[in-house]
Amino acid sequence: MHDLVIRNAQIIDGTGAPGFAGDVAVADGRIIAVVRAEQGGITAKAKRVIDATGRLLTPGFVDIHTHYDGQVCWDKEVTPSCWHGVTTVVMGNCGVGFAPVRAGTENALVELMESVEDIPGTALHEGIPWNWESFGEYLESIDTPYSLDVGAQVPHVAVRHYVMGERCYGDATEDDKAAMAQLTKQALQDGALGFSTSRFYGHLDKQGNLVPGTHAAADEMLAIGAALADIDHGTIEIISDRLNDQEEQDWIENLARQTGRPVTILVSSNVGPGIWDFADRLNADGIQLRPQIGARPASILMSLEGTVNPMRQFPAYSEIKGLPLAERRQRLLDPEFRAKVMRDIPKVARFGDTQKMITSWDAMYVLPRSLSYEPDYEESIAGIAEAKGIHVREALMDAMADGRPILYLIGHYPGHLEKQRSGIAHQHSVFGLSDGGAHCGVLCDASMPTYMLAYMSRDRTKGEKFSLEFTIHKMTEDTAKVYGLYDRGVIAVGYKADLNIIDFETFALSDPEMVYDLPAGGKRLIQKATGYVATICNGEVTYENGVHTGAKPGRLVRGGALQTASTA
Question: Which end of the chain is less enclosed by CB atoms within 10 A, N or C?
Fold first, then answer.
């Protein structure tokens, strides 16, 4: 008798091949049979049978950029990713994380994560047990049951801080490089899925300094890379705002060729089209260079509760900032208060990027109710003000009183997401950048798997859409392989039974909402979805119609331990 049989599904198997009607049988956490409808289906008995007539059956989604390094210590469901069909997450991204760490220096890593990734430090301090020093000990600490599988990369910032202490912002000595290489090698041997580093100007600590390692010399990166060359697994993740520079491309190429390991480089808003030529050239030589791109461009949501609130630039707002949210929204409509705001001389934000976000009226969009994240000028604060014949400050107060977030798309937004679509469609790109556990007060891109299916594959009208088969492949088999997880991401015999049953007719995103459910009452934006009939991890149903069943069959995934579909 099988543990589970799913019958009459429209199966999209994750390989990119055309979908087909059929049945799937599961036993001991593995797929043991896939039978097409024309072959008669599966007639054997099972402990549970799910009739998936009229519904899609997909592999569970593999999200490779999540920043859940702290959250996994207290949230064993790993929300919100688990609400969006994700059955495997990879963390330790952008070079930041919490291991290795010397006793007494934990606060430095918390402050870096808080500053770079907008995760409340109070939540991290309260929620993290800090019962480790080495990266291997960290993995032991988080090796607990979850609703999905969890894997981690070793972060450059933590390694540099551990080796160099307060010198970590400067140049590394030869001894420093050797020590960092050895720590990275040991972390990989202990189960790290890879190594990540940041060379991005936007990643600053609380004092405004670029995070440790941003200006690391090429020979430091190559020394660390030598550690990966000695190990049979490990992916290298790099975020850099210098990817257009030949010098940056040269050392990345040297690193990729030296290690033979996959390298994924994060495609930010300022990266030019040459990055795809770079990827084409290396992949033609058998070198895996995978530019990583998300479904939406880098963006933030601004609101009265959010980290970025454009009303704070007006001195009059200080009069109401301590009021309950409902009262603040009401006061924004009060003629007397509005008159004060209209007379105000705005304050200038500390950072130029923030100043641009809160004053670019033609690029500040009321979040479309369709949740397209692909707005028109008419939905901008400037466009609304123009249509109504009012001042932009009045249009801003109207929008924020209404309660819908203000969407700001970072970089040049031409009125459509064709650059994103074409990037995702590129043969060497890999889908990522959800930041599921990060940027808590400004976005909720953990919802991107749902967005990719509901909008980019069904509802989009501004340009070409993806086929379901392509979209699902990019979020399952393709992402899994980049991190050497060859046992998942495909609906075929021998693979892990990580699956989603989806009612595509009702499939939709819900509005983002701010909740205060982190340790110490920390806030975060969440976004739920409808249409997930069931999510299955390791053969067990973990979510039914968006509700957790209580099952936690997910586990820590260690690099090198799960290489093929035939190994367990």
Answer: N
